[in-house]
Amino acid sequence: MPREKQAYEDIPGTYVFDAERSRQGYAINMFCMSLMKDENRRAFKADEAAYLKKWHMTPEQEESILKRDYNRMLELGANIYYTAKLGATDGHSFQHLAAVMTGNSQQGYAEMMLGGGRPVDGNRSRDGKHNTPSPFMAEALQRGKPAASRAQAPKAKAASRTPVKSKAVSKATSKPASKAPVKAKAKSSSKSRSKRG
């Protein structure tokens, strides 16, 4: 059944993982989750096409996996966090996958992200109806700072606080507890035994 057109589908370079895509991509996502087990990874790597047949995917979904076309997988209902398990099975980092998906080298992708990410211009909804930034982004844009640098500031402040002693350290440096309450408890239980019998 063809996908129902959504208003947000004109945002370039992304596929929103909504309820419809979730249903559409269930088989892809369950296949990817199966790769968390070593025996499944070995079976997949031994015969990829045969392993995929277990999951009852569409031919397009199987083809996207065999070609490692991650953007097509997302379009066909895969979730990026699930497909990362396929990338890991192939020995790739998430940064590698993101670079491939954005048409960058790993270094180019890292530099882009360190520089504040993709520019907003040209990466918004084309009809203009969905271009209102979130309150978080709007505040950051007003201040003229990238949101990423503002998000890191509280972490740096928290790291500069005086460290708290862990329980293990405080136990090792404190005096041992008195054994008097334990002895008293033992005496009282022996008294209660003598009263019974």
Structure summarized in a few sentences:
The protein has helices at residues 19-24, 26-34, 38-46, 48-53, 59-66, 70-75, 80-89, 94-102, 106-114, 135-143, 147-159, 167-173, 180-196.
Give an overview of the whole structure.
Helix content is 60%, strand content 0%. By secondary structure, the chain is mostly helical. It contains 13 helices and no strands. The relative contact order is 0.09. It has helices spanning 19-24, 26-34, 38-46, 48-53, 59-66, 70-75, 80-89, 94-102, 106-114, 135-143, 147-159, 167-173, 180-196. It is globular and about 55 Å long.
The outline comes out as globular
Q: Show unreliable segments.
A: 153-182, 184-190
Q: Give the CATH topology of the largest domain.
A: Protocatechuate 4,5-dioxygenase, Chain A
Count of discrete alpha- or pi-helical segments spanning 4 or more residues: 13
CATH first level of the largest domain: which class?
Mainly Alpha
Q: Multimeric state of these chains?
A: single chain
Number of domains: 2
**Structural class estimated from helices and strands:** mainly alpha
Question: What's the helix and strand layout?
Answer:
Layout: H1 19-24, H2 26-34, H3 38-46, H4 48-53, H5 59-66, H6 70-75, H7 80-89, H8 94-102, H9 106-114, H10 135-143, H11 147-159, H12 167-173, H13 180-196
Helix pairs in contact: 2-7, 8-9
Which properties best describe this structure?
60% helix, 197 residues, globular, Protocatechuate 4,5-dioxygenase, Chain A
